[in-house]
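Design request, tokens follow.
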């Protein structure tokens, strides 16, 4: 697995959700605990469907859970 530029707030959200475990989240979204761990550690970017499932568990919009860096300031050199 490679690191992804997508970061997330899953750990904080789990803490605020009565200290939900990675396994509890995995059970609710239909994934493995290892997958949740990899997503949370930004080692794996979830599919769009899985991202929506995670957001819905916490009653959040996808953008409130997942963060992608603003690349609008980057320019292509050529």
């Amino acid at each position: 697995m490679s690191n992804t530029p997508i970061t997330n707030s899953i750990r904080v959200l789990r803490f605020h959700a009565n200290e939900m475990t990675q396994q509890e989240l995995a059970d609710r979204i239909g994934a493995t605990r290892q997958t949740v761990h990899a997503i949370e550690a930004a080692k794996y970017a979830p599919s769009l469907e899985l991202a929506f499932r995670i957001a819905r568990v916490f009653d959040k919009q996808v953008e409130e859970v997942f963060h992608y860096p603003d690349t609008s300031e980057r320019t292509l050199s050529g």
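Comment from the thread starter after seeing the answer: thanks! Helices lie at 10-16, 22-29, 33-40, 48-57, 62-65.
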